[in-house]
User: Fold Calcineurin B homologous protein 3 from Poecilia formosa.
Amino acid sequence: MGATQTHSEYQYENMVGKTGFSTEQIKNLHMRFQQLSGNEKTLRREHLKNIPALANNPIKTEIIEAFFDKRNQLDNELGSYEEIGFEEFLMVMSHFRPLSIKTSEEERTAMRRQKVRFLFNMHDTDGDGKITLEEYRKAVEELLSESGTIGQEGARAIADAAMLEVASTNVPNLGPDDFYEGITFEHFEEILKDLEMESRMHVRFLDMNTANLRCGKTSS
Assistant:
């Protein structure tokens, strides 16, 4: 037991620099990983499908796939894993890491860009570097059709109109017969420039106590 604990402590310390989490935060996330995986060494999609808070989320599939998307491991590799270990889980969770009072402006900018990239990857499902009209339609249809007040055709019409607006904004000289290939990451970043990411990207769906993920010490 003692040797195992020492090994775990070493692993935690090794992940601090990679993720920006403190050792205590990594311990908390490891406990949640064990709960989700049923104390197995790896996490599979079916483990996440059993989270009650995700059951009625219209983008449940995209959220789950994000955990297995190799692009979210920050090494720009394409493809997906069949299962992930704690280190991969932790790297994905680092996208949701809250800011601290010690976070510099440079770090804040880098963290925001990382969060935007995470969201972009969720919608760029084929990994070609663009969110195409079909991918955008699928996202809008899922978000709107789940409400039951807008049918599939209505959702598609909204998606088409929104994509046309994005195209005219991002490519002002686009002619009526020109084909808009899709939203690039740079376009996507511009679209979300006024969105406050910190309040939008949280870990409530994992049933985590977000107070445990605060960076640094807090006084009460």
Summary: Residues 95 and 111 are 7 Å apart (CA to CA).
